[in-house]
Write a structure and sequence with these properties.
mainly alpha, 3-stranded antiparallel beta sheet, two-stranded antiparallel ribbon, 15 helices, 6% strand
């Protein structure tokens, strides 16, 4: 730090501007170093020589590992506990609707329950992760899990509101503003996509995605990568290039997306209102309207698993079981010629039918 210090008059100043005399004392400005002894940091990497970036990546990997492990254990625990009579009781309690004309009230009570549970655990991820296995084992219906999830989105806004209330007085107004923005944003989503039954598009979308993922397991990873990584990165890159380029690329793609949705709806509802060529997508290459070619490519690219993992992984065991089942089926469907029976028939003056004169015959229709 720079401090004013006295020097003997006999010392020469480095510059007349930095020295002045007051009575018998000559003053100047010098850098004075002071050492303050504070307690040493006691975190996990206090004695490591790693840079901050490496430490951050290690902590990120560890936190993701702990998070995924906890979620997997929650799912396993719920699957093992909620079985039998417990599952039937919960199913009747949660999925029960009120009698007419108060049927609509059950969904809003489910929202309140979801918001309350999320407020207690202070995490919407934990609550929705607990709901997922319950839906998978049939305890909660998708129609009832939807308002529970919406309520969880409301309950998670309480964390931001509580944090804003703990702010100092000088920033309390701005903290509450952004917390209430979060709250009313989720309220607006509920108003848009829940009150009227035909506006509950997420239910139909999740059923469609679930059916596709049940048939093609890799589609779940593809969906996550595209919707939460590649698509935002694509839009962000276009925004850096400027608004004209962003609008010039995104508007035609958005119009094409809307047109495909409209055509799909009309193909399922009123196909005769469309031109004959647009009544189905067969005029396009198969890889543009079916996931089967992509599934074949992906599965064939993963076929090295059976060659290198020595049959210990799950996919190899499944493939081995499938091949064994196919071999058993083929063996039951093979027809072999009985030479002893044919010799007896020849001795008795009877000849075997011409169809039985094949040494080994395979058929897909009958098993002899």
């Amino acid at each position: 730090t720079l401090q004013n210090v006295t020097i003997p008059p006999s010392e020469n100043c480095t510059s007349p501007d930095l020295c002045w005399t007051e009575g018998n004392l000559t003053w100047t400005i010098k850098n004075v170093t002071e050492t303050e002894y504070i307690s040493k940091c006691r975190h996990l990497f206090a004695d490591a020589d790693l840079p901050d970036l490496a430490i951050g990546l290690i902590l990120l990997a560890l936190s993701l590992l702990v998070l995924c492990s906890c979620l997997v254990m929650i799912v396993k625990l719920l699957n093992s506990v909620l079985k039998g009579q417990v599952a039937s009781v919960i199913k009747k309690t949660i999925n029960t609707d009120f009698p007419f004309p108060f049927t609509w009230l059950a969904g809003y009570l489910a929202m309140l329950a979801g918001a309350g549970m999320t407020f207690i655990v202070q995490s919407s991820s934990v609550f929705t992760s607990a709901i997922t296995p319950l839906v998978g084992i049939g305890v909660i219906s998708i129609e009832r899990s939807y308002p529970l999830t919406l309520g969880a989105n409301i309950g998670t806004t309480t964390t931001a509101i509580l944090a804003a209330l703990a702010s100092p007085g000088s920033t309390l107004k701005y903290s509450l503003q952004i917390a209430l923005c979060h709250f009313f944003f989720n309220i607006s989503g509920i108003i848009l996509f829940y009150p009227l039954p035909f506006t509950r598009l997420p239910i139909r979308m999740c059923k469609t995605l679930g059916n596709v993922t049940a048939q093609y397991r890799w589609f779940a990873i593809f969906y996550l990568l595209v919707c939460f990584f590649l698509l935002p990165l694509f839009v962000f890159g276009l925004s850096l290039a400027g608004w004209p380029i962003l609008l010039g690329v995104c508007l035609p793609l958005f119009a094409l997306f809307i047109a495909v949705i409209v055509i799909n709806v009309m193909q399922s509802k009123r196909p005769h209102s469309l031109p004959e060529k647009l009544q189905n997508w067969d005029f396009l290459p198969i890889w543009m309207h079916s996931l089967e070619p992509w599934d074949n490519v992906i599965m064939s690219s993963l076929s090295f698993c059976g060659k290198h993992c020595c049959g210990f992984c799950k996919c190899c065991k499944v493939n081995a079981e499938q091949e064994g089942a196919k071999d058993k089926q083929l063996k039951t469907m093979e027809v072999y010629e009985n030479t002893i029976a044919m010799a007896d028939e020849e001795r008795g003056g009877r000849r075997a039918p011409a169809a039985a004169c094949v040494e080994k015959t395979g058929t897909n229709n009958t098993a002899l």
